Structure formats: structure tokens, C-alpha cells
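Archive entry. Fields below.
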Amino acid sequence: MKIGKRRNRPEPHIPFISLADIAWQIIIFFLVAATFAVSNALNLDIPGASGKQQAQQAPKTITVQATDTQVLIDGKPVPFAQLQPRIAEALKGRKTEQERAVIVQGRDDLTFQRDTEIMYAIQKAGGILVMEEEK
Amino acid sequence: MHIARKRMEPVKETQMVSLADIAFLIIFFFMLTATFMKDRTTVPLPVLPKGTQTASQITVTLDSQARIFIDDDQLPTPADLESTLRNRLAGKTDPKDCEVRFKCDKMLKYKTYRPIYEAIANAGGVISIIHEIK
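PREDICTED_STRUCTURE:
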């Protein structure tokens, strides 16, 4: 009887290398696709009707009246591009928060885009925003 | 002459099984620690130069049809928004914790979005107007 010679066969094994590759691909996808919950924002701390102190007005508070097409500082029309330097100029020498308050009076036709641009200009000029409705 | 017989050496290979384990552990970590944002309402935002940033978890949205949303839940009136926000902000004193992300359609008019400002302010929130960067 012929008995076949037993050969040294390699042990069978499952190749796991590709699994690691897939896993790393998933990790990279998570990292790239992740949107961090941090957004660009313009912060407004408006005194509310309750809970917070109402804004105190200094005797010479700057008032900005705004429509969607026109901006007035203390009743005088100002080109929109000049808003920030004009407010900065008007705030010169004013040190306390009350003195630096800038009242914004919006008219009904003022769009949100224009309003945010005005508020941004006031904050950049160093003013402290106080919202007030146009009467 | 004695010639050494070439022996069949086992193929040398790096053990990669543990690498897959590590990778999957990292995936599970990402999945478990992820905070899914509840804010799916999209509105055209105003465009401004780069300013500050906010990481607030509360989002108030006012869309083009003047519908008010807090996170993804629609609210009928600004008064409801105020009471909901008051509950959400209860016990918070640090201004950073009181920030409320406000997303508003850039074409809305003052009379429409003004009551939202008041509602957030009356509830003790700090309004963080979300904008695109110019």
C-alpha cells in the first residue's frame, strides 16, 4: 500500500489586513465629514424687559436710525461706508459703558442683512449696542 | 562537498489584527462621543466679515415665512419662544452659557425679527447672530 508523504501545509488564516484598512478609511471619513458645532456669530447682549437691568442712557447717547436705504447718526444722514469711522469719531473720549452706548432705531423696512451690517459697524467702532424701537 | 539543504522558512508577516481592533475602538469612540446637532432648518444667512464664534447648543431659527423654530421644533408665537428659552436657560449665569444661536433669513424685515430679539433678551439669553463670512 502506498502511503502519501504528509506535506507541511501552511495553517489557514483569514486575512485581516484589509479590515484594518477599511476601519481607517471610516475614521478618516468621520474626521473629514465632521462639522464642528462652532459658528461665526455677532453677539448682542440686549437688556431684556425683565431679569436684566435696563440700559442706562448717558446725556449724550449716540442714536443711529436705520432704514434699508439710509442711515442717520443723531439725525444726520451718513453714507453707509462712513458709518464705522463716524461712530468711532463720535465715541472719542467716551470711556464708560453708558457713554459708549449707541441706540439703534430700526424702521420696519430695515432688512436683517442691513441691520447686522450696522450692528457690526457699531461694535467695530467700539460702541455698545442698545436696541430701541422707532417711535 | 556538503550543500546545506534549503529549509522552508515560514513567511514573516506583521500581526495586523490588533490594528483593526484599535481602529474600530476609535470609530466607536467617535460615534459615542458625537453630539448630533438638532438644527436641520436652513435659511439664507447674512454675510459679514469674520467676527466671534459661538458653540451654543440652543438654536432659534426664523425662516423666510416667519416661522419660529427652536432647534427643530416649531413654535407658534414669540411668547412661546420666550417661555421655552427661559426654561432652557434656567440656572445659567455665565454669558457664554446663555448664548442663543439666532439664524434668521437675511431678507426679513425689522418688524418680523424684532420680537425674536426681545423674546431671547427677556428670557435672559445673549443673542448670537449666525452669519456667513464675507
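CURATOR_NOTE: Chain A touches chain B at residues 8, 10, 16-17, 19-20, 23-24, 26-27, 30, 34-35, 37-52, 106-113, 115-117, 119-120, 131, 133 (CB under 8 Å).
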